[in-house]
Design brief:
- The chain has 325 residues and is of the alpha/beta class.
- The chain is 35% helix and 11% strand.
- It is built from 9 helices and 8 strands.
- Strands 1-2-3-4-5-6-7-8 form an 8-stranded parallel beta barrel, surrounded by 6 helices.
- Helix 7 links the parallel strand 6 and strand 7.
- Helix 6 packs across helix 7 and helix 7 runs parallel beside helix 8.
């Protein structure tokens, strides 16, 4: 990474100023006052890494493109991987100092409930009924038993349940919980509630404005995840040129390198192998493009050291556990 300039260059600013079109000044009050505990303001994440083969592609391509990777995440779910596959991914990520995040349990969009097939979408990915909640817990326990220390959740009840299990010691204390973009909070109050329910990292929808990020940062320092390029089912937004401003407003922030104009691959299986590997390869390339943009603008400083994963001290609701007999 190149050394950051004291003031990052605004895109096209010098050329536009020469013809009487100056860039508007940034408001210093909009800058997030928060950072990761290591002092960094941003980290990177490659999403939709659905198994060991896709992970191998990400590792190979990130080395080829010199792309630092802090986290990889998987979207199909713990239950779509064998113990051997999870173990292989855990070991490969540990070797490279990368956090591995796996999705938990049954989700409403794959359930028998018809509401998710309607125009309203029903309850979306949320876990329907006790059995679905229990399935998410079962997935979480299996994953942590195999060495996974980051779990993706798409239901507030699942989040609170897993946090209580973490507080009680059933789930290892260093386990982190990441909130899915598909239930991501869209206002400061909901963001703060998710943090207090146990979230260590929250994927906000990619169509939130820069002002929305600033509003959230006035009430919470919990790390934020944001697709700088979103998959089509999340809007297909491409915000590469905003990366520096997203970091300034949203730090501490995970830059997620999704991919628009590509087929969905959840739940992943061998029938989707070629697509999964090709899209994994291109996600890494997209990440390199974003970091190149940051470097050209002198805004690439502040990256967390590789291997960093913990979010720092966060606010939680009090947890009351049943007394032991």
């Amino acid at each position: 990474m190149t050394a950051p300039s004291l003031t990052p260059r605004r895109p096209g600013a010098d050329a536009l100023a020469r013809i009487g079109h100056p860039a508007p000044d940034n408001d210093p009050a909009d800058t997030s006052p928060h950072a990761f505990p290591d002092g960094g303001t941003w980290r990177t994440e490659i999403p939709s890494v659905e198994g060991p083969e896709a992970l191998a592609v990400v590792l190979e391509e990130s080395a080829r493109h010199d792309l630092p990777v802090h986290r990889v995440s998987q979207g199909s779910g713990v239950w779509m991987l064998t113990d051997a596959e999870i173990t292989e991914m855990v070991e490969a990520c540990a070797e490279h100092g990368i956090e591995l995040c796996l999705f938990t349990g049954p989700r409403g969009t794959w359930d028998i409930g018809a509401a998710t097939r309607t125009d309203s979408g029903g309850a979306g990915l949320r876990s329907r009924g006790h059995d679905a909640l229990a399935g998410c817990v079962e997935d979480a326990l299996r994953a942590v038993e195999l060495g996974v220390r980051c779990l993706l959740v798409a239901d507030e009840g699942v989040l609170w349940t897993l946090h209580r299990l973490r507080v009680s010691g059933v789930v290892p204390a260093e386990t982190t919980f990441k909130v899915s973009a598909l239930i991501g909070p869209v206002n400061p109050a909901s963001y703060a509630v998710h943090e207090r329910l146990g979230a260590d990292s929250l994927n906000i929808p990619s169509d939130l404005t820069l002002d929305h990020l600033t509003e959230i940062r006035r009430v919470s320092r919990a790390p934020m995840d944001l697709y700088v390029e979103a998959p089509d089912d999340l809007g297909g937004y491409i915000r590469m040129y905003e990366a520096a401003e997203l970091i300034r407003r949203g730090a501490p922030l995970y830059l997620k390198f999704g991919l628009s104009r590509s087929p969905g691959i959840y739940p992943y299986g061998a029938q989707l192998r070629d697509i999964a590997l090709a899209t994994a390869r291109e996600r890494v390339r997209r990440g390199r493009l974003v970091l190149d943009l940051l470097a050209r603008h002198g805004a690439d400083g502040g990256m967390s050291p590789l291997g960093s994963r913990l979010p720092g001290e966060l606010h939680r609701f009090p947890v009351t556990l049943p007394e032991k007999d």
